Amino acid sequence: MKDFELIKNRAIYYVSKRDYGSKELFIKLEQKFPDADLEAIEKSINKMFELGFLSDERFVEVYIRQEKRNNNGPLKIRMKLKQKYITDDLINIFLNEEDQDFYDNCANALILKSKGVVNDYKEKQKYYRFLASRGYLSNHINYAFEKFNS
């Protein structure tokens, strides 16, 4: 019981600092308390759900919004969420790759990076690679270049 209280208090501390996915929080608590019973960790995570301090859906929604603001594309966002142990089903519910925001963000990133000038094919390739590294799909990048050239 003592372990449970200690783990629960640490979990409350962690979720008060930022949002976590349940699996990510489980691993963090497991690393913090390596000798603790896994059942106590699971019980404390279930308590976080009951209290409304932990929600995978809320975490995914907020994380996607934050990454969009940072001008990251859907591929990069998907990869980062998978690194945080979020399931594909949950990602697919909240991540719409055809969202107009991705097209607009990609175009804005191109304008900022190129400073409004793309002189030749080699430079265009450079900006294409840059946008692809940001996680944008080819249709987002092509849209950005069309908007840029018009």
Q: What does this molecule look like?
A:
The chain has 150 residues and is mainly alpha-helical. It folds into 3 domains: 53 residues, Arc Repressor Mutant, subunit A (Orthogonal Bundle), CATH 1.10.10; 38 residues, no CATH class; 50 residues. It has 9 helices and no strands. Helix 1 packs across helix 3 and helix 2 crosses helix 3. The protein is elongated, with a radius of gyration of 20 Å. The N and C termini lie far apart (66 Å).
Topology:
Elements: H1 2-17, H2 22-32, H3 38-51, H4 56-69, H5 74-83, H6 88-94, H7 100-114, H8 121-133, H9 138-149
Helix pairs in contact: 1-3, 2-3, 7-9
* CATH architecture descriptor name of the largest domain: Orthogonal Bundle
The amount of helix comes to over 70%
Number of beta strands: 0
SSE succession? HHHHHHHHH
SS class? mainly alpha
β-strand amount: under 5%
Might you state the CATH topology name of the largest domain? Arc Repressor Mutant, subunit A
Tally of DSSP helical segments = 9
The overall pLDDT average reads: 93
Give the end-to-end Cα distance, rounded to a whole number of Å.
66 Å
Q: What overall geometry do the principal axes of the alpha carbons give?
A: elongated
Main sheet?
A: none
Please tell me how large the radius of gyration is. Answer: 20 Å
Number of domains: 3
Contiguous low-pLDDT stretches (5 residues minimum) are: none
CATH classification, class level of the largest domain? Mainly Alpha
